[in-house]
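protien #1 (seq + structre)
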Amino acid sequence: MLACPQCDLLHRGDPPAPCSMQVCTRCGAVLGRTGSLGLEAVLALHVAALILLLTALAFPLLSLRMHGTLRVISIPGCVGILAGLGWPWLSAILLTTVILGPLVQLGGTALLLLRILHRRQDAWTARAFRVLEEIQRWDMVEVFLLGVIVSYAKLSQTATMVPGPALYALGGCIVVTAVAVATLEPRTVWDASGPGAAGAGPAALPLDGAGPRSARQAALQACATCGQLAPIAAQGPCPRCGASLHSRKPDSLGRTWALLVTSAILYLPANALPVTRVLNLGKAHEDTILSGVLYFLRTGSWPLALLIFVASVLVPLVKFVVLTFLLLSVRYRSRWRPRQRARLYRLTEAVGRWSMVDIFAITITVALMHMGSMASVVPRPGAMAFALMVVATLLAARSFDPRLVWDTQEPEHA
């Protein structure tokens, strides 16, 4: 058996047929998918993505020629420039989400798959995969590439820009990684790493003739990481992956409210304060996020203006509204359209990371426009407030437990 991580409904645990996916019968969440590729092909895809990422880190990313000066940057070079300019937090974001995180995730997953193929997995295989799954949530290579495109479009208005080999390698890495992630069914790794639950068929599982039930109704709790079922009275770590066992996330509402209020407080300075200070031939001016949107509108690049406005202004605002609505609906035990509320939560969780595109565009612009008094761009306090706001909204979405939406549908837990 397996329990839906979004609504806690019990289902039979056999994997779906090849080239298909299993969907929860109550909330519509994807429980598992099976591609046409075997573990050997998935391993090859992870190795190929790792090689492309290493290539992107080894070669130049962009070149800029302005006022007779040539600037060539690489991704690791951006990290060093930002740290040298006294902005270690920007450097840390770039280092963890674009370099170290993806390297560890791709390389670690490839090693685990290799061990599973050679039948060498042990108790630590599931624990290592749990760490890799958490790292993957903060992998933002595709968001970084979009930030590079935004920076390229903006700087090409005033300077000569030339894409380097790393840009093409990075694009290839994103495509191959997407295929690798889509074809790797985590349940395959979990089942090969330790005890799992078994059943037959994708239909909801009736227990004791009472019809479909949640895990909590059946006195069970599912590990939030690997889905391993255990008695609801069980304490301590999950027997398979080592994560803490809880029927529901501890203090989910309180932590989500705290993070949501924090992000809402940061939203105002993030949009009101300047995010960069630009110096060009002795003339200085400061830009906010909205002034960047207006710049692209004036230059005719309305798709980029729309992109920045949606990702940096609209998406955080929508997340505030949606999470507040979900928190209030759970607080007042609303029974209104739980399936639609579950979809809203999944959408909010999926799009939140794209708000980081403006931060990555700033890092690229700062690294390229580092020419002293002739031309330079430096981050301003608004950029720090914006980055903290995005992180807080991501953590708020992660701390909310969507199973609380469905608890009011169960009379014995009303």
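ok now protien #2
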Amino acid sequence: MISAPPPRRAFASDNAAGVHPAVFEALSEANSGHALAYGSDRWTTEMNDRLRDLFGSNTSSYLVWGGTGANVMALASMLGPAQAVLCTNWAHINVDETGAPERILGAKLIDVACADGKLVPAQIDEQAHAIGVMHHAQPGVVSITQSTELGTVYSAEEIGLLCDAAHRHGMSVHMDGARIANAVAAAGGTRAALRAMTVDAGVDVLSFGATKNGMMYGEAVVYLNDRFTAAAPYVRKQVTQLPSKMRFVSAQFNALLHDDLWLTLAAHSNLMAQRLYDATCSIPAVAYDAAPVVNSVFPHLPPHLIEELRNWCFFWDWDVPSHQVRWMTAWDTTIEDVDVFAAGVRELLGS
């Protein structure tokens, strides 16, 4: 039994964190008077300008309620008749969205095994054999996750090669960027790093995540290729992702994008994960496959002690057969939280 009280903030998910004060203040400021609905407001105009500043003047953005909705909307506007989505077996759209893409889109997901959560160009080439065969779903969209569900990060060069392979076969590329901020922070934390792994690499449509990085709710679907924008406003409404009082989503994005707060928060989250790894990697009973790149660590723990540790401070299982769990840090994780949790792990598992 661990003798000390648990840390104030657990390590279950960055999705469990609260709302950043600047975002709360922006919500309060937007809650004044009337504003036209569905995006005809000054906050949404500002948000669109900010995202064009990030990604380029030819891009267009559409706000949605959440991450699953962002992915469904993006894919719905990209897929053609009888087309399928190629993704990894770890992809959120494949594992954690209750089959929403397949049910709502009526499209098959072709999931391929990837030990590190990352597709490689050869896997796109391998699936291209189905193109033109009327008995097979046609691979039409490649969907990648940045950062991945395993806490790995594609380099800009890797994404560029994936996009080249996809485009060579007539496929388009979607990026699920639920944690794009953490990936950018890990790649240097600059706007240039963001553009290098998205626009410059050849990504066509991006699900731009913010809820896990200090917002209350809301994500954006950013069209980097105007080939897909014509249907976007209609598809958004059709898949129930059009917020009526859009100013409240836009105001949150404006707060995060101001002075690149979104990158500052992500960099802190990544740093806390590294601190947690450093504080626990020397404990003999804690085994890691790799050091963290972003804001999650995946230790293997003695199975008979996992529940006791979880009851003290909650976290999720990851790979049950190998007794692997996930500890995740967030924008509001403190040094004290990390040190208290690491001390508890050492007390329980150190012997």
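The mean pLDDT is 97.
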